[in-house]
Amino acid sequence: MAVLDRDVQQGDETGSIASTSRDRDETRGRVHAFCRYADDYLVLFEGSDDILNTWVNQLNSKDSSINVTTDLEVNRQLPYLDICITRRDDKFCTKVYRKSCNTNQVPAFSSYTETRYLRAAIRSDCTRAIRYCSSMRDRQQELDFIRQKFHHHGYPRSFIDSAIQKTRTDLRLKARALPAPPSANSHPAPVRVSVPFAGPLFYQLKREASKIGIQLVSKPSVTIGSLLCSKAKHQLPKLQQSNVIYRIECSCQVEGDPAPPVTSEVQLICERAAGGALPAALLRLLATVAGADGRAADSEWPWRGADEHGAPLTELFAAAAGGLSQRPPLCTAVVAAIFRERLTTLSSQLAFLSQFWSGGRRSVTVQTAALSVSAALLTAAPAHRLPPLLAADQPLVAALLAALLSPRSQVRAAAIQCLTKLSTAKVAKAKCALLPLVDHVTASGPELIADAGALPRCLAGAGRPAINHLVRLVVAESASDHVRAALASLLPPLANQSTLRACAPVLSGLVAECAGGARPAAARAQLAAALLGLVRPATAGALADAAVWAPWAAALSDASDLLQAPALRQVTKALWPAMDDTTQARLLALLLDLCTDARHAEEAARLQKVLRRAPLPTELWVEQLGVQPPPAASHTVRRTSRARSAPAADPTLAADEADVTGRVWRRRRLLLEALAARRRPGDEALLVGALLALLRRLLCVADQPGAEYLTQLGLSCVQQACGHLLRQGRPPARLAATFSVDTLVQCVRRSPSPHTQQLALTVLGQAARIVPETVLHNTMAVFTFMGSSMLRQDTEYSFDVIQRTVENVVPALVQASELVGTAAEPLAAVLRVFVDALPDVPRHRRLPLFAHLLRTAGERRHLGLCLAMISDQLATRGDLGDQLAEHTVLAAGDRGAPLLVDFAVSLCGQFAVDVQLESCCQLISHSEALLLRHHESAGRAPDTGVGDGPALFDLDAYSEKQLHRHCHTAISVVAHLLASETFVVQSAALDAAGAAAARQRHQQLLEGAIRLMGVCSRLCHSALAGRPQATRHLRAILHRLYDLLDKVNALLPWATLLPVVSALMASDLAAVRRRAMDLLSSRLQLQHDGFSESDVPALLAITDELVAAAGAESEDGSALSRQTALFAVKLLSRRLSADQPRHFVQVLGAVCSLAAGGQLPAPLLASVLLCLAELVAGLRAHAVGRLPAVAAVLLAALSDSDRLSDQLLLLSAVTLTLKLTEALAHFISPYVADLVAHVSRLSAAHGTDGAGVLSHRLSQTRRRLATGVPLRVLLPAVDQCFGRLVADGAADALAALMAVLSDAARWADVAELSAALPSLQSLTVRALEFRAAGGAHPATARRVEAAVLEAVTCVVPRLSEATFGPLLVRLLDWASGAGAPTARLVTFFRLTDALAGRLQGLFVLFAGHLVRPLAAALSGASSLSERPLLPGDEESSCELAEYALDTLTKVCQHDTEGFLNSERFHVLLQPLVDQLENEQGAEERRQRRVHGHLVPCLVAFLAAAGDDSLWKPANHQLLLKTRHQSPQVRLDAVASLSAVHARLGDDYLALLPETMPFLAELLEDDEPRVEAATQALIGQMEATLGESLQQYF
Question: Which of 374, 379, 315 lies closest to 347, judged by CA?
Fold first, then answer.
C-alpha cells in the first residue's frame, strides 16, 4: 500500500493519473485498486520497492512541475488523511488517525456561543468515530477518548453522553433509510433569522420567536474562513473548471475524468448574431406585433395613458433597450424599425419615449436608453420643429423635469442632455414660454447631476414666472399623472397662497374621486398627496377662502390613509400660528369632531396626536370645553364659618351632559387628554377656572362609569397648570377669584379612588402656595378627611401627598391665623386630627409624618402641644388601652411604657435639645395649671405656653381620675424623654452655647418639677386629705416626679449638682439627706470619664462630709444612711484616690477607725469592708502605712465565724482580701499564713467549683495569693497552714490549700522554683503522707491526695531530667522502703499514673525503676496472693491494682524507646494475666477493673512487646485462663483475647493454630455468654483471615 502525495509547483495542465497507473508494459508492476481525494491517492500496489520507485520516477518525468512522493505502510499500518488503515490476513481494518502534532483542542464549554455549536463539536467527532472505526473495540475506545477530551475542557458528562447517544440514533435511522416521523400538525416552514449571540437572552428570545414561526440562529458576521482565506486569489470561470488535475498522455490512450468543452452562452449568441439571423428574427417579431395590433402607424402617440395605448410595442422597445449595451447595432435597428413602422412624428416619438423615464417602473438601463434616444431625436430634428415642444401646454419639459428627480445620476445626466438640446433652439423667447426655465435648469446641470435633491433649490432661483409655469404644468392635464405628481412634489417649498388657490380645483377633483371609498390610481393618489403638501405656514392664509378650505377639510374628513394621513402631516406646530383665529377655531372643532366620531383606533390615534401638538391659545380650548369659570367670590377671614357651613351648590346639567358616555363628554375627554399632553398651557388662570368648573359638573355624575377617569384627567390638567404658575413665581391676582377650593375638597371627599384623592390633595397643596387665603377656609375639611382615610393607607405615594399637603397648607394656615391673632386654634385643631388618627397610622410612617408636620408648623411652639395631646390620648380614651395592650415597649428602664409614650420620646429626639427641654417645661406647667384649676378654682393658673382650651383637655368633659392620669402620663413622657439614649447622646454632643442654653432649661425644669411637687404635696395634705383614692393618685404623681428629679439631676453638670447635693445633705430630714447621697451615688455610677480640675476640690470637700455622715449615728437608729454614705465614699475613692492619695489616706484611716470603734451591724460592717477594699485598690502602695489597721479589721471579720453567716459580710471580707492581695501582695508577708488559712477554710465551706459570685471571688483570691506572693514566702506559710489545718481537723480545707500550691508552682519562675525545690519536696512528701497517716475519711483523703498530686504534676514538668530522676527514686523509696506503710503504695502508684499521663514519653525513660514494684504491686493486690499487701482493705487493694494497671498502660502506650524487653516482659506477664482471677471487690467493681483497666493494659502490653516470640507465651497464658472453672474468668479471658486480636490484626494469625483448640472447647462451654463471646471472636478472626474457620471445629 502507498500514498502518493503530489506537490504542484507551477502550471495548471489537465490530465489523468489513471492512465499511468494502469500502464504495466514498462514497470511490470500491478495496481489492484486506487482511490483519490483531491491530490492524495491511495494505491493498492503489488510489486517490489524498485518497481514502485521506477513507477514513481516515470510519473515525475512527465513534467517538471510534478513531484510525487510516497508513504509506505509500517507494521502493516498506513495513515491516509484522518484514517488509519490496518492490513490483516483477510481484510482491512480502519480507525481514526491523529497526527503527532494534534493538540486535541476544542471549544471550551464556557465559550460565549450557542449551545448547539458545542453539541455539534461532539457530534462531529462521534460521527467520524462511528464511520471510521470498523471494529466495536476501536469504536468504543474512540468514544471513550472523546468523552475524556471534552470533559477535560469543561463539558458535563451528561451533556457529552446525550450528544453521543443522539448521534448514534441519527446514524442508525439514516442507515436504515427511515424517514422522520410524521408530525401531527403540519406547520409551515419557519423563517430563519440570523442574530448575534447574547447569552441567556438569546435562548429566551429564541423560545419566544419560535411561537410565531421564526427560527433564530446565531451566525457570526465574520468567520475564520473569511479572515484567513484570501478573496484576491484568481478564480477560473465555472465553465473553465475541470474535474482533473493533470492529463498525462500514455500509450494506452485511456483518459480519466475528461473535462467538458469550454464554451459559454454569450459566445454562442455572439456567433449567431454574427451570422445575421437575429435582425431578421426581430423584424419578423416586429411584423408580428404590428399585425397583432391591427393598426397602421400612429401619427401621434398620447402623452397620457401610454401604457394602455400600446403595451406590446412598449414591451418590445423595453426588451430592445435592455440589450442596447451588448449589441448596439442590433438594438438600434430594432428601435429604428419601431419608429419607422409605428411612430412617424417627433412628438409621438418623444411621447412614446417619455413613458419609459417618467413612469418610475422601468430599470435604469431602459430609462437611460429612452433618454438617450430622445436626445438623438432632438439633435437630428430640424430647428423649426423644436419651438412647439417648448410651448406652455407641451408636457415634454415637464417629463424631463420629472426625470431630474430620479435617484440615478445616469438618468439625470441623460435628462440634462435632452434639456440642453432644447435650450440650443435659436427661436424667439416669446414663442417658447418654457425656454427661460429650460435655460435656468441647464445652467445648473452639473449640480443637478451630482445631487438628486438640487432641483427644488434650482427652481427657487428661477423666479416667480418660471414657478408659475411649473404650476400650470401641474394644473394642466396634458402631462401624465406621474409627471404631474413629480412636479407637484417640487412645489411645497416654492408655493405661496396663490399657488394653493390655483391648485385647489385640482385637489377638489381628486378628493371627489375618493368620495365613497373609491381608490384612484397610484399616480393620482401621489398627485393628491403632493397637492395636500402645499398647505404650509406660508400658504395657511389661503385656508380662509372657502374654495381652499372645502377640499382640505374634505381630505381631513376622509377616514382612509389615502388623503387624511398626508393632510394631517401638514398640521404642524408651525401651521397653527400662521392661520387666523377663525380658521384655528374651525380646524380645532373639525379635528375634535373627527376624533370624537372616529370609528377606527388608528384614525383616532392620528387625530389625537395632532390635537396634542396644537399650540392654540387657552381661550380656544376653554371655548371648546363649553364651560365658563364661576363668578368671582370674595372671601374674608370673617366669613370663614359661613363659607364652611354653606358649600357651593351643584350646577344644573344640560340634557346632553347627563350621560358621561355621550358625545359631549367624549369630546371633552379628548380635550382634556390634549391639554394634559401640553407642556405650557398658556393662560393658566383662565384654564384653571374652566377646569374647576368642569370638575364641579363632573361631581354631579360621579357615580357613572367613566366619570372617575375624567375627574383624574381634569385634576392632572389643573395640577400641570398650577405647577406652571408656581414656576413663574407670580400667579395672577384674578386667579383667587376663580379658584374653587371647595371643588377640590369635594373631589377628595366624594371620590372612592385613592388616585383621585391623591391628585386632589396635590392640587390643594399647590393651591395653598398660590391662593393661601382661599385654601384656609377649607383646611379642616381636608385634614379631617386625611385623618379618617389617607393616614390609614400604607402607600408611599399617599404619605408623600400628605407630606406635601402639610408642607404647603400648614405654613399658609399659620400665616393666615397670625393675621387675626388665633395662631393656636387652627394648628391645635390640625394637630388634634393627626393625633386622633395616630393609632391607625402605620407604625413605620408615624415618626417621619409627625416630625415633618411639627417642623412645618414650628417645633418650638407646637412640640409641647403635640405631647400634651398624646398624653390626653393615653389618659382619656378608654379604647386606646385595648389597642395598645399588645404594643408595649421598655423605654428608659421603665417597664410597661405604652407604645405612644415611646413614640413621643422618639418624636422629641428629632429636634434640638433646647426645644425638647422647653417642651418638657411646658408639659410640667400645663399639668400644674390643670391641677390648680380643678382643685383650687380660685387660684391663679400659670401660663403654660401650650394653651389650655378644650383642644387640649376639657375639665368639664372628663373626670378627676382622668385628669390625674393625664398629669401622670405627661410627667411620664418627660421622664422617659430625659432617660432616653437619644436625648443623652444629643446632650453630650452640645457645644458651649448649646450647653449653656440647656443648663438654663434644666434649671427651669427642676424648678417646675419642685413647684409641682409642692402643689401635689399641698393637695394631699389639704384639699384631698379625706379622699384616699385621689390621694393615692397624687402620690403616684409624686413618685413619678421623684423619678423625674433623678433624671434631671443625672443631666446636670457637676458644677451645678455638687452645690445642690451639699445643700440637701445639710437638711434636717434623714430622708432628704439620704436622697441627696443617692443622687450623688447614682451620678457617680454613670460617670465614666474623669473629672475636671475645677470639680475636684468640691468633690474632696463632699467626701469629708460623707465620711462624717458615715460616722454619725442616725436619728432613727438605722444604718441605712451610714451605708449610703459609705457607698458614696467608695464610688468617690474609685474615681479620685489614685490622683488624690494624700487626702484618701486620711479617709482610709477614718474608715478603719470607724470599724474599730465598736461592734457594728453586719450590713454596716460589710459596707465598711467594701469601702476599705476600694480604698486599698486605689491607693495601692500609699496604703502601706495603714496596712496593719486594715489587716486587723479584715482578720477580725474573718475570724468571727458567727457573723460570717451573713453572705453580704462574707462576700465583702473576701473582696477586701482579694483587693489586698492584688494591691499589696509584696507587703503582706506577716499575714499570709492567716489569710491562706482563712481562704482555704472558706473555699472548703463554700465550694471550689467556681459557681456563684462567692466561689468565683474565692478562686480569684487563691490565684492571686499563689501568683502575687513570692514562692519563698508562700511555701513556709503553706507548710505552716497545712500543719494547722491537720491539727484542727480541717481536712476539707487541704484541697484548697494544695490548689494554692499548684498555682504557685505553675506560675513560679524556674530559678525561683529550683531554689525552693527542697522545701517543696519536703512539703510534697508530707502532704502525700496524708492517706497513710489515716484519721480522715477515705473520700476526703482521696480528694486531698488529688490536690497534692495536681501540685506535684504541675511542678514535675518544669524540672530537668537530672532533678526528676532522684525525686522519683526518693518517692519510690518512700513508698516501698523498709518499714514503709503499704498504704503509701496506693498513693505512689496514683502519682505515677498521673505523671505518666502528664509526661507521656518522657516518663518512659524513668519507668525502668518501676518494673519490679509494678509486678509486686499487681501480685500483692490480687486475691490469689498468699501475702497481700493490704490485708483486710479491699478498697485500697482495688485502687492499688487499678493505679498500677493504668501506670503500666500509659508506659506501654508511650513506649518508643524499647522499654519492654524480654526480661521485663516475663517479669510483668504472669502478675498481669493473673489479674483476670483477681476477685477482690464487688462484681461491678471487678468488671470495671477488668474492662476499664486490665484489658487495655494487656492490649498495650502486647502491642509494646512487638515480637511474636513474646506474644506466644502471653497468648498461651490467656488461653489457659479460658479453662478456668469460673465462667466469669473464662468470659473475661475471651474478652481479652478479642481485644488483643483486634489490636494485633493480621499479626495474630501466627497465634491462630495454638488458639483453635481452645476456641473449640469454648464453643462447647456450658455458659451461654462464653459461647456467644467465642462466636463473636471467631467472626472477628474470620474477617481478618478472609475465610471461614468453621471447618476446624
Answer: 374
User: For residue 704, is it left (φ>0), alpha (ψ between -120 and 50) or beta?
Assistant: beta
Q: If we measure between CA atoms, which residue out of 70, 52, 61, 55 comes closest to residue 23?
A: 55
* CB atoms near residue 260 (< 10 Å): 10
Kindly state the helix (H) or strand (E) to which residue 1435 belongs, with its residue range: helix 1434-1453
Which grid cell is 1448? Answer: 503500666
Q: Scan for cell 449610703, then name that residue.
A: 1124
Report H helices in 359-444. Answer: 364-380, 396-403, 409-423, 435-443
C-alpha cell at 546: 372657502
Of 666, 596, 609, 635, the residue nearest 738 (C-alpha): 635
- Terminal Cα-to-Cα distance of the chain (whole angstroms): 72
* Residue in the structure block whose three cell numbers are 408655493: 495
CA gap 845, 794 in Å, rounded: 8
Three-state DSSP state, 280: helix
Spatial CB neighbours of 1068, under 8 Å, sequence gap ≥ 6: none
Place of cell 476539707: 1292
Name 42's bridge partners: 3, 35
CA separation for the pair 1221, 1219 (Å, rounded): 6
Rg, Å, the chain Cα set? 60
Q: Is 186 helix (H, G, I), strand (E, B) or coil?
A: coil
The model's pLDDT over 50-96, given as tens digits with 9 standing for 90+, comes to 888 888 888 888 777 778 888 888 888 889 888 999 987 778 899 99
Q: Which residues pair with 37 in a beta bridge?
A: 40
- Identity of the residue numbered 1194: L
Task: Write the DSSP string, 201-269.
Answer: HHHHHHHHHHTTTEEEE---SS-HHHHHS-S-S----GGG--S-SB----TT---SSPPPP---HHHHH
The model's pLDDT over 401-423, given as tens digits with 9 standing for 90+, comes to 878 888 888 888 888 888 888 88
Q: What gap in Å lies between CA 1585 and CA 1562, rounded to an integer?
A: 20
Number of residues written out for the chain: 1593
Task: Give the separation between CA 835 and CA 867, rounded to whole angstroms.
Answer: 10
Return d(Cα 844, Cα 840) in angstroms, integer.
11
Q: What is the pTM of this model?
A: 0.45
- Are 1301 and 1278 in contact by the 8 Å Cβ rule? The answer is yes
1556 φ/ψ angles, rounded to the nearest 5 degrees: -60, -45
User: Which residues are within 8 A (CB) of 640 and not within 5 positions of it... i.e. 6 or more apart?
Assistant: 776, 777
Q: Which residues partner with 67 through β-bridges?
A: 7
Q: What is the pLDDT of residue 239?
A: 47
Strand partners, 72: 2
